[in-house]
Write a structure and sequence with these properties.
The structure holds two protein chains of two kinds. By secondary structure, chain A is an alpha+beta fold. Chain A has 20 helices and 38 strands. In chain A, a hairpin with a 2-residue loop joins strand 32 and strand 33. In chain A, helix 5 packs antiparallel against helix 12 and helix 8 packs across helix 9. The chains are: A alpha+beta, B alpha+beta. At the A-B interface, helix 8, helix 11, helix 13, helix 14 and strand 26 of A face helix 5, strand 1, strand 2, strand 4 and strand 5 of B.
Chain lengths: ~800, ~350
């Protein structure tokens, strides 16, 4: 809502508060003033001129030479290129010495040999918003009404020595969608009374009821409908004062009737509509819900299809307006209109909101009705508009109001306890202080019993229905700054993270410490992306957004890997080719496409590595990452969480991966072994289609990890007897899994085999092409005593024999 | 014999004068002092001496050996010193060449901020609660005092999945879920971090997905002044001890009274600058006293209990804290952006 300071001052004394000061105080009391606009862009030496004559320029087709009276002794000769300039007009004239808002200085000049002593200005040249003006004035000069005095400063004529305060209203404060609402708010802040507009009306016509009638058949959607009948109106442009008011509020002036209704809407917050009464069948109004298949042509010339949820105004024969949204073309006020029916009604906000949304028709009127207008303003606004129309159009107002009321508005009374107020706010306000605040707000409050007020809420404040609403009013008027700052009293509570939260933090810390960057990628993705890595969401139906913003972000992710691949691609396009990322978050899975229940959100960790392992420098080689980097990262994590012994990797060809370089990861839980995740190089086809380098990814479910992790550390006694190390080289089939042989060694040796470490894997010229040589270091230790030679020889021999029995050939 | 010994000493001392290499020194040692050396050779004749002569000659022989050995040892030490000196010269390294760094990545700046905020509130006795991102209409709106026909519940503003299920638009549903879990127990002190979703076209300051942290406290006698005290303590721990807060009345359906909270501008310390539009204040939080209807729906009698709630956008805090110019950086994950946060 744009509130003109000058206009506001007609309802309340603003002495001593500048626009800026007022804006600050209003903001601090709860309505944010976004912006204070100075309406005068700097218009000194620009005055009203009267064009006494216009002649064609002798040497230029498009120029006119005008003789202009600016109220000075001498007439000015001004060359003007505007198409719409003509003799007899009052126009803004920038005289010699004027500086235009854009900085241009007006000097004496010769245009094609003819002297020009100033400039006739367009609205744009005056630095004014010309969007609300008629088209010919947007393209040409600004033409002023004939009644203005030549020589008067233009800023005075257009009432530009004014500021506009932009009220940024929260949804509960629609009462301030009106000048009077704003005045009440400012009145409460400044503790000054509000002056209401003059409500006297001259009714010299016959009885309105003889000409018009009203019937409401949709009482739920219309609690009150009132109308007046005005005869003999003459449509004309509005006087300047009215146009100035509307322009300050950002509303386009149209004609005296529309402008009067808009002016009153801005003043009272009550939208009004004027019908050409002679176009209504028998002057009748029926308010009813629309019927399926019904249509109406609205004021903008469009045919609108209606449905039974929309509230319609008809004349009993045909639809004549969409209630609260837009009038019908068939009953529009036109140049030839003589008699009008003026509507002021209370329509249901929700009904109007739905209709205006559905039809994509939003207006200043619908905006106000949607938020529920003040039911007690219906009649005062109707009277005010009728009187204004009478004055502006020379019409005659018929006697009386024709009205139907389906639900009487009852003013609310709310009890406000001084003690409760203080208990809620932490203040120690007295009853007198609270009473004073209520009075400032214009709320009648009687102290029914000691410390409890009976507060009658004015109808304009429909947002106040509970005691707490009143406490808020007291608090904001008392000033939030004046509320003390206290610590919470009562028992202290221990704050801590849950196990799951601790582990997720630890994962972040460990992986970031290990050189991976944490990414955050979008939860929404393209449906095709959810099919790329389905292993952790088998049989899942994608969770689809009902109205996505784009196909690319239309379903919820079922894997992090596609998002991380896109991130790697984004980095690659920016020459960041060495990328190591991880992300911790949720995937969303359901097996019920209809979603009778919420989808399951599974906590997931994903890793991605591509490019070089580390930045090469003089003493660090530029080695590319491989499978064992990403496996190592996961293993470090599993070790850190104390669950490495429960984890198993199995070559498994999960979907989306390079079949020879990928695995499924299994975790031994207390309830048995579960699939934990997948790991490997992405399939070369996918790598190509995503335009990536060789890329390794892993994705695991975190809940099983969290469930099996224990924070207990059990100390192991340091060994007292020496260990014996034996290195062996095994020649294995190229396709054989070393892990298998490591397990054989462990199983065979039992507890005395302290560690097994693979320290070399060789393939090449020195052995057969289908073989590989694996060097393994075995460390044996007996915790009870030192091994004897015989013991160690026997034990190691058993291990070697077991390995050989599995096809390993000992390399001598 | 005595003469021979003296002659030997003279001879060796002369020869030692000319020794240049360690090898020559060793050769001399063997030649004169070794098992088959000349000194041993001379002493072999000791058997023919008389019992009186033997100790005298023995003493002379020891003196000769001692003086030769002394000189050889000195020479030897000189050689070692020279060698060490030589080695140290040769082993010179360039200390300005870069070292091998421990690899280090970064926790995402949004999570860094979330963790920091969590830690402040954990220190103040709060627990951290989480809830689903795909949420029912009831928890996201209805239980927060936004009835079905409320304008804020428009399809245009939220990502609905079915009529009753949507992407949560705020972390407040976690507050409702926590109230239900607590079954009316007090004190309740939680903060709820997480992702939220709103239909918004992405630009430098808007994103359809972003993060919030909300807090909720319920007990007997929780006052608005406690809310102010809590927020001031948080702001001081998060942004510094001299930061002030300012509450402005505002409106949220789930709190009343409601307020927006400004903090002293982090850029200009309140003097006024471009960042704070010359006001000296930055808006960072929304808060208020829990609306009685919300308490009721969460299973708390508003006549007995009261509470406060507050919420902030994590992105906003991170933008302010790190001086980041574009919210989209948080989701594009350019490693050159991410790696700037691998610091304390």
């Amino acid at each position: 809502m744009n509130v003109s300071y000058k206009w506001l001052s007609e309802y309340i004394d603003l002495t001593g508060a500048t626009a800026q000061q007022l804006a600050e105080r209003i903001t601090r009391a709860g309505i944010e003033i976004d912006h204070v606009e100075n309406r005068n862009p700097g218009l000194d030496n620009i005055v009203v001129g009267y064009v006494t004559a216009r002649e064609k320029h002798p040497d230029a087709d498009k120029l006119n030479v005008c003789t202009v009276d600016v109220g000075a002794a001498d007439m000015l000769q001004i060359v003007c290129g505007a198409k719409n300039v003509d003799a007899g007009q009052k126009v803004p004239v920038a005289t010699i010495g004027a500086v235009m808002p854009d900085g241009m200085k007006i000097k004496r000049a010769k245009l094609r040999g003819v002297e020009s002593q100033g400039m006739i200005c367009s609205a744009k040249e005056l630095g004014l918003n010309d969007k609300l003006l008629p088209k010919e004035m947007q393209e040409g000069i600004l033409v002023l009404p004939a009644e203005v005095q030549s020589g008067t400063p233009i800023a005075e004529i257009l009432e530009l020595n004014d500021y506009v305060l932009e009220f940024d209203l929260t949804p509960n404060r629609s009462d301030c969608l009106s000048m009077l609402g704003a005045a009440y708010e400012v009145g409460a802040i400044l503790d000054r009374p509000v002056k209401l507009p003059d409500e006297t009306i001259e009714e010299t016509g016959g009885s309105a009821a003889d000409h018009i009638s009203i019937e409401i058949t949709a009482p739920e959607a219309c609690s009150r409908y009132a109308a007046r009948y005005i005869t003999g109106v003459k449509i004309a442009p509005s006087p300047l004062w009215l146009q100035n008011r509307l322009l300050a509020a950002g509303v386009r002036p149209i004609n005296n009737i529309v402008d009067a209704t808009n002016f009153v809407m801005l003043e009272y917050g009550q939208p009004l509509h004027a019908f050409d009464a002679d176009q209504l069948s028998n002057g009748h109004i029926e308010v009813r819900m629309a019927r399926a298949g019904e249509t109406i042509v609205t004021l903008d010339g469009q045919e609108r299809k209606l449905d039974p949820q929309m509230l319609l105004i008809t004349d009993g024969v045909k639809p004549v307006a969409l209630a609260g949204v837009m009038g019908g073309a068939n009953s529009e006020v036109t140049e030839s209109t003589v008699n009008i029916l003026l509507e002021s009604a209370k329509f249901d906000g929700g009904v109007v909101r739905k209709a205006s949304r559905q039809l994509g028709l939003r207006s200043e009127a619908s905006l106000r009705i949607e938020k529920e207008v003040n039911p007690e303003a219906v009649i005062p606004a109707l009277n005010r508009a009728a009187e204004l129309i009478r004055q502006l159009t020379g019409g005659t107002v018929a006697a009386g109001i024709v009205e139907k009321v389906t639900t009487q508005h009852i003013r609310q009374t709310i009890q406000l306890s001084v003690e409760k107020t203080n208990r809620m706010l932490g203040t120690s306000l007295t009853a007198a202080e609270i009473h004073s605040i209520l009075r400032r707000l214009g709320f009648e409050g009687n102290e029914a019993e000691s410390g409890v007020f009976e507060v009658q809420i004015p109808a304009r404040r429909g947002d106040i229905t509970l005691a707490v609403d009143l406490i808020e009013e007291v608090a904001r008027m008392y000033g939030y700054d004046n509320i003390p700052t206290t610590p919470i009293e009562g028992a202290t509570t221990p704050g801590h993270l849950t196990k799951s939260q601790r582990i997720r933090r630890e994962i972040r810390r460990l992986l970031a410490g290990g050189g991976l960057h944490e990414a955050i990628t979008y939860s929404f993705t393209h449906p095709q992306e959810t099919e790329l890595f389905p292993t952790l969401s088998p049989n899942a139906k994608a969770v689809k957004l009902a109205m996505p913003m784009s196909e690319d972000r239309s379903v919820l992710r079922t894997s992090f890997i596609p998002g991380l691949l896109d991130t790697a691609g984004y980095n690659r396009n920016r020459k960041n080719e060495d990328v190591q990322l991880f992300e911790v978050g949720s995937i969303y899975v359901t097996d019920d496409a209809a979603l009778a229940e919420l989808p399951e959100e599974k906590t997931v960790l994903a890793l991605l590595m591509t490019g070089k392992r580390s930045t090469p420098q003089w003493n660090v080689k530029a080695e590319p990452v491989d499978f064992y980097d990403i496996k190592g990262a996961l293993d470090s994590l599993f070790s850190h969480l104390g669950i490495i012994g429960r984890v198993r990797y199995a070559a498994d060809r999960p979907a989306g991966f390079h079949p020879g370089r990928s695995a499924s990861i299994y975790l031994q839980t207390d309830a048995g072994e579960v699939l934990l995740g997948t790991i490997g190089q992405i399939h070369p086809d996918l790598q190509r289609s995503k335009d990536l380098g060789e890329t390794y990814v892993a994705e695991i479910l975190l809940q099983p990890v969290i469930d099996t992790t224990s924070f207990a550390i059990e100390y192991q006694v340091l060994p007292r007897f020496p260990a014996v190390e034996r290195d062996i080289a095994l020649v294995l089939d190229r396709k054989a899994e070393v892990g298998h042989y490591v397990n054989i060694a462990k199983e065979t040796a039992g507890a005395w085999l302290e560690s097994v470490r693979v320290f070399d894997v060789y393939t090449g010229d020195r052995i057969a092409a289908d073989k590989k040589s694996v060097a393994i270091s075995l460390v044996y230790r007996n915790p009870e005593q030192t091994f004897t030679d015989e013991e160690i020889t026997a034990l190691h021999g058993k291990v070697v024999a077991a390995l050989e029995a599995q096809g390993a050939e000992l390399r001598k | 014999m005595k003469e021979r010994l003296h002659a030997l000493r003279e001879n060796v001392l002369d020869l030692l004068q000319e020794v240049i290499t360690e090898q020559q020194l060793n050769d001399l040692r063997i030649k004169f002092l070794g098992k088959k050396g000349e000194l041993t050779e001379i002493l072999r004749g000791m058997g023919s001496l008389s019992a009186e002569e033997r100790p005298i000659i023995g003493q002379v022989a020891n003196e000769v050996r001692g003086s030769i050995e002394n000189i050889i040892n000195e020479k030897q030490e000189a050689f070692v010193r020279a060698q060490t000196e030589h080695r140290l010269q040769a082993e010179l390294i360039d200390v300005t060449l870069p070292g091998r760094k421990l690899t280090s990545g970064a926790i995402h700046p949004l999570n860094k901020v979330i963790q920091e905020i969590e830690d402040v509130f954990i220190g103040m006795g709060y627990q951290v609660a989480e809830g689903p991102e795909v949420e029912s209409d009831y928890y996201n709106f209805e239980a927060l005092n936004l009835p079905k026909n409320h304008p804020a519940r428009d399809m245009q503003d939220s990502f609905y999945i079915t009529e009753d299920i949507l992407m949560r638009t705020q972390t407040s549903p976690v507050q409702v879920r926590t109230m239900e879990l607590m079954k009316g127990e007090v004190p309740l002190k939680v903060i709820c971090p997480g992702r939220v979703y709103r239909r918004d076209d992405d630009d430098a300051t808007h994103s359809f997905m972003f993060h919030q942290i909300e807090g909720l406290v319920i007990d007997k006698n929780i006052r608005m002044s406690d809310l102010k005290g809590t927020l001031l303590q948080f702001v001081n721990e998060m942004f510094g001890p001299h930061m002030q807060i300012r509450l402005r009345p505002s409106f949220f359906p789930f709190t009343e009274p409601s307020a927006e909270v400004d903090v002293t501008c982090v850029q200009c310390a309140g003097k006024g600058c471009r960042m704070c539009k010359q006001t000296g204040w930055l808006e960072i939080l929304g808060c208020g006293m829990v609306h009685p209807r919300v308490l009721e729906m969460g299973g708390y009698d508003p006549e007995v209990y009261s509470g406060f709630a507050f919420g902030m956008g994590v992105e906003r805090i991170a933008l302010l804290k790190y001086g980041i110019d574009d919210i989209r950086h948080f989701y594009t994950n350019d490693v050159r952006f991410l790696q700037q946060f691998d610091r304390m």
